[in-house]
Amino acid sequence: MNAAPAQLAFDADNHLGETPLWSAQERSLYWVNCENPPAVHRWDPATGDHQSWPMPERVGGIALKPLGKLLVVLAHGIYDFDPDTAALSLRCASPLAKHVSLHESQCDRQGRLWVGAYDHHFMPTNRDARDGAFFRLDGNQLTPVITGISVANGLAFSPEGSRMYFTDSPTGHVECMDLDSATGEVTNRRTFARLEKGEGFADGATVDSEGGYWLAVFAAGAIRRYSPDGRLDRVLHIPVSNPTKAAFGGEHLETLYITTTRLQSGPKSVENGALYAALPGVQGVPEPMLRD
Q1: Residues 6+ positions from 270 with CB-CB distance below 8 Å
Q2: What pTM was computed for the model?
Q3: Among 40, 48, 32, 8, which residue's Cα sits nearest to residue 270?
Q4: pLDDT one-digit tens code per residue, 7-66
Q5: Which of 148, 155, 139 is nearest to 206 (CA)?
Q6: Quick check: helix, strand or coil at residue 170?
Q7: Positive or negative torsion for Cα 248, 120, 141, 57
Q8: In terms of CB atoms within 10 Å, which of 17, 45, 185, 245 comes out highest?
Q9: Rounded to the nearest 5 degrees, what angle is found at the Cα of 240, between the Cα atoms of 266 and 268?
């Protein structure tokens, strides 16, 4: 069940690395440092070239657009972003209260952007804070689809696009819903996988071409692969305690890149905040461009 451990790929030194995203067009990996300082990063594994762009507030996610442009999910709005000029243009403001940040994002197979949110009032002494949600971006409007969320994570879509996976991290449950590819509507909400107490916390996720769901388990130093029926069939270890999310990249989408954080929970490690890579023996699914 265990896979070969991941290796250090790039010492990003991120406070909270998140949302890795492979651009086949640029043969480069994008990701974000959510805060301290908020920034979008791009790294070319072949040349080692690394660029970063500071953001004006907490950043949660990104989506690819044609011609090397991006859509950037900031705490309180969705912005079009041009890396060549570093110009941000507001597409839509967040409908949420100021204490709730837009967070993780992912495009489905049809290129629709889905965005989660993080309620900053959630903490061990206030576990009832659930003002977050999962949204679908419809044109220039965020449509709430799943409400009552504390810490949105785990967004991923099955290879053929018929399932959406997600988690509200404090629950320990990964859920899935059936997704209508034509309309973007979701139905049949159900539990897909479960983390037991002491096994860590569900964070970001991706899928491979065989339908396997790769979940970063915060405080466990591991990426878990679940088969499409929800069975745990592989555990990939990294030499730090807190992975945040994985994404497939490389010429044949054969490399699994993993972001991490300097935030501590569980065994400490000086390499937290770096970017890791592994060869898990399966390929990923090409990242769709944003559909405008």
Answers
A1: none
A2: 0.96
A3: 8
A4: 999 999 999 999 999 999 999 999 999 999 999 999 999 999 999 999 999 999 999 999
A5: 155
A6: helix
A7: negative
A8: 245
A9: 45
